[in-house]
Amino acid sequence: MVMAYFVENFWGEKNSGFDVLYHNMKHGQISTKELADFVRERTFAPVWDVFKTSTEKLANCHLDLVRKLQELIKEVQKYGEEQVKSHKKTKEEVAGTLEAVQTIQSITQALQKSKENYNAKCVEQERLKKEGATQREIEKAAVKSKKATDTYKLYVEKYALAKADFEQKMTETAQKFQDIEETHLIHIKEIIGSLSNAIKEIHLQIGQVHEEFINNMANTTVESLIQKFAE
Fold this sequence. Notes:
Organism: Homo sapiens
Protein name: FCH and mu domain containing endocytic adaptor 2
Order of helices and strands: HHHHH
Domain F-BAR: 1-225
Pfam family, one: GMIP-like_FCH
Helix content: over 70%
Number of strands: 0
Low-confidence stretches: none
CATH architecture of the largest domain: Up-down Bundle
Largest sheet: none
Shape: rod-shaped
Number of helices: 5
Keywords: Coiled coil
Strand content: under 5%
């Protein structure tokens, strides 16, 4: 049995021996940790290197994806700004079509009202004739009927002109809008394709890193670790 050295020697001045013994015990934990770190570094250093290398490569893959996505966002924002300018220009170019739409809508309403008025005046004139109204009443009704007829004919002619103008401008504008939409869809498809390719490329890189990690771990045998520690 080891002699009681501590009992004989650690009373200390001002009863400070306890603190010395306690801190020595704590230092033992530190020593144990330092020993464990030493063994770990000696034995598993190659393994940690494999982990570190793979982790750094994976981090670079994700950073590369973030960079590509940021570039893609800038491209989308730029396209959005170009769209605003393009739409403003298009709005000016199709202003004539909008005017033609408003014109034919207005004339269509007026034509419908004039038709209803024409029919009403014709019916009224026929009613007076059948009921044996005075000649004066019939003549007054005839004047109103003729006026309604002339107004109706006028709006029929106006409608025909407005319809021809509307159809021509609307045909041109519809084609313009289709061209714009086709260009837009092509551009959006290209952006989505770029996003898909970026993600696909990163996934391939990550797969390569994983495969490399598996191969490196497979090549790091227990025998090689022991040999490394012995060196």
